[in-house]
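Structure ticket #2291
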Amino acid sequence: MNEPDNVHKVADFLHEAALSGTAIAPVRNLIGEMDLEAAYAVQEVNTQRALNAGRRLVGRKIGLTSVAVQKQLGVEQPDYGMLFADMARTEGEEISLNDVLQPKVEAEIAFVLGRDLDDDHLTVADLFRAIEFAVPAIEIVGSRIANWDIRITDTIADNASSGLYVLGSMPKRLCDFDSRHAGMVMERQGLLVSSGVGAACLGSPLNAVLWLAKVMAKLGRPLRAGDTVLSGALGPMVPVAAGDIFNVRIEGLGSVTANFAKG
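Resolution: structure written out below.
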């Protein structure tokens, strides 16, 4: 079977896993353990499938922003996935565990754009001008790959292991906080389960967003005004159980909460 056939075959496997709620075996053997181009081709097939079905693209998520995790997976850059409007949840809304396969949570800084970023020669100054505000965010990652048995091409093909996300409700301008030195704490039912700092995200969350913006512009799917960017985890991700309540506080940004249904 040639590579294009494998790409569509893997895309179908992942799509069916999402629809059925049944995780599948790793897909890396079908597309190559280090063939990032093939993995993104799989992601693109399912992105187009989603767009054709009427889902609205509202942003991107950045993954693998930890240098230590990159080394574990044998890569030297982050990855990205698509955010659709139906992935957003609000604070106070009960989140069903049925909505995400094998859910885990991460604390992140989310940036919302006020201008397009459609030039692949962007500078950090362009980024400053384009970001309208930032909020704390909880990303609820999920994997269609059984037991989270993933390598780099598994997660990229699986839309960077995306699931859902919750944004905080008090937007801040870039000049109102220090994203690089902002400390983060995550509590579950009042107990500390994860902590970190902005610099854990590729040295600065803004570095991650600039990387993404350049890549997206080069690929012809640039970030647009109104897009949300989840810039990457500030600390270790944490598994989710029914009834969990997670609260994240990020210095200078405030807090955000995710509530999971009891059953």
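Closing remark: The radius of gyration is 17 Å.
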